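B., you asked whether I could sanity-check this one before it goes into the benchmark set. Here's the sequence:
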Amino acid sequence: MSLASAMHRLTEPAIRSALSALEPAPGSLGLDAACGNGDHSIWLAWAVSPDGQVIGLDICKEGLIKARASSARAELTDRLAFLAGDLHCLPFPDHAFDWAWCADSLWPGPKSRGFLGMDLMPILKELMRVVRPGGQIAILFWSSQRLLPGHPFLEARLNASHAACYPFQEDWPQRAHILSAPLWLHEAELKEIRGRTFVADLQAPIHGQTRNDLAACFQMLWGKALPELADGDRKQFQRLCLLQSPDFIADRADYYAFITYTLFSGRVPACPD
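And here's what the prediction gave me:
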């Protein structure tokens, strides 16, 4: 099972709401920067139908193979294309796009660990270069979750673990946190900067694929945190969050949880006369 696809299925309502808030105009040309497996690209292509087009760009060849296959299954190959490329040097001319979208990619972090670096300004400037004056740039982040109702202290300790806060480190400056993105956009000299948060609700009954996806989500968020936990918390996690447990928390008849995504956007300033 693709972890990215599992997370996208869980969070699709929040992501689609964020996409609607961006309001990509029908007939427009957009860039999905760091498109991954192409799920967002497909939703964006639907949003600009019938005459618009979307180009998805990613550095990972395996992701692009999946994205092209998904595009073909969705019968979108006439308005959705995928290219290999690097966010630091986008292979497009100036002002090529009406808007750009970049989801769950601009996490500050050391390049030695597979992140884009601590200074994201060069990437923002590249996005600004390829978007026309007046066009929008949007960056989206998974920003919070409440998934263990009735166990707030356990969930707080899981969320406070070093593994769950990764890649953010305690001694990093505030600007290295994703919720400082408005500062990044301001320093990039974008205009009309906004931040908005959207919710994906998870509510009983939880069955089938959603149940499997939620178990995968628990592991993604907190699986690597287990060595940091006290023995009692570790046992509670295994009792509540493992799919095979008879006490798997999402099997409760009253289960309710949520995940939030936060969208930060701004407009490329007009060219000086």
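One thing to flag: The mean pLDDT is 94. Otherwise nothing jumped out at me.
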